[in-house]
Amino acid sequence: MKKINLVVCLISLVILSLPSPAMAEGIRPGSFTLSGIIGGYTFDGRQHIETRPVYGVRGGYNFTKHWGVEGLFDYARTESTGADQDINFYRYGGEVLLHVFPDNKLVPYLAAGYVGLTRDPEGQHTVSKGAFDYGIGAKYFLTDDLALRADFRNMVFREGANVQRPGEYHDEGTGFNYEYTIGLAWQFGGKGPEPAVMAAPEPPLLQVVPTPPVEEEAPPAPVPAAEPTPGRYKYCISLNLQFDIDKALIRAEDHREIARVGEFMQRYPDTTAVIEGHTDNVGTDEHNLDLSRRRAESVTNYLVDKFGIDRSRLSSTGYGFKHPVADNGTEAGKQKNRRIDAIIDCAFDVTKISPPERLCMSLLMEFETGRAEIQSQYHDEIAKVAEYMKRYPTTTALIEGHTDNTGTADFNQKLSQERAENVVNYLVEKLGIERSRLSAKGYGASRRLAYNTTAEGRKKNRRINAIFDCVVKK
């Protein structure tokens, strides 16, 4: 019996000493709890009662993060070691709980209270007595509302003298019973953690700015054409068109190149496209901007006139030499920069089409505030990335993490990087994608798509993008 008690104590101490990850909600003030437990109950040796499994329920209330109370009811079916007699045993009462690290995923606690102990031997009258109990426990939160729990309790009581019934002391003295259990605990109601801005040192940072407190957020930068939309894809094709110097007319030998876009949009009539014109750096900014725009419009007009694409599905824009893809210091680099990009917005099964030069996908994922763990309901979303990369093994992917502006810039940068890395690790460890084909980059709140002043805008800014580089031999 002493060995059992020693093992239980050691296990409990190990649980309490385990490191617990930060940024878990843990105990919520004002929350109610309901637990189911199972374990073992050991009686004092002088009682001559067998150790048996015990089952029970717990119901509690947390006044604060640190302090709570819990009512309990336990039952064990046991028997006397000195006679062939079954005994029903009950423990009931209440305890006060002191949570030591209430904000962590792993929350150790101390417990003390007063309970009733009832023994009901078959064929004899029931005997009840009071006992002080104390012990330790720990809850490990799997989610904000569900936790595993482990407990150890010691019951201390006085036993009367000269009682000659099975399962009772024959000599007066202090008795010690032990209970060791595991179970599941549900937490519901209560107040969640305050918004991150309450804890983040944003006010001191804002005070450094010489302007009054920021009331209006600067407009977000124009959304790049290649920014993926949730539930859709950006299918990017670079057209290798050769224009005459300072001209925007399409050469006959380039018609087949433009047909790649026209035939694709005919095949998928719900797609739209942005035709982007780019130049090298020869000439003035104004001239190149106008030239790139006119060349993009020429391609748009050709798609309308020759392929019957509705003009409402097309738009054109010129960037001049603002977005080079190669070094303008060489003739080869300039040639690469004189290009037309078609950014096609799509909604289809991307694994059923030939890959373009580039494919951008926005994953429909949400993370808990301030945390980077991937929730199980988003595993299928990440599986889309793996399915595409397995179908096209020459592709590589950059996983981008983005956040809203809740919290400090440093915190958001680290959080977005960690979220992107967790997606990469899941693709490698769970879905078998080679790590050399993946990279992760966090952008924090630097690339917002919408205003952070509304919940809807912040949700749009909290996103994970998968940018595929499709190096395919044609």
Protein traits:
474 residues; alpha+beta; eight-stranded antiparallel barrel; eight-stranded mixed β-sheet; 9 helices; 16 strands; 23% helix; 35% strand
Describe the 3D structure.
This protein has 474 residues and is α+β, with helices and mostly antiparallel strands. The chain has nine helices and 16 strands. The strands form two sheets. It has an eight-stranded antiparallel beta barrel with strand order 1-2-3-4-5-6-7-8. Strands 11-10-12-9-13-16-14-15 form an eight-stranded mixed β-sheet. α4 (255-267) crosses α5. The termini are far apart. The model is unreliable at 13-23, 195-200 and 203-209 (pLDDT under 50).
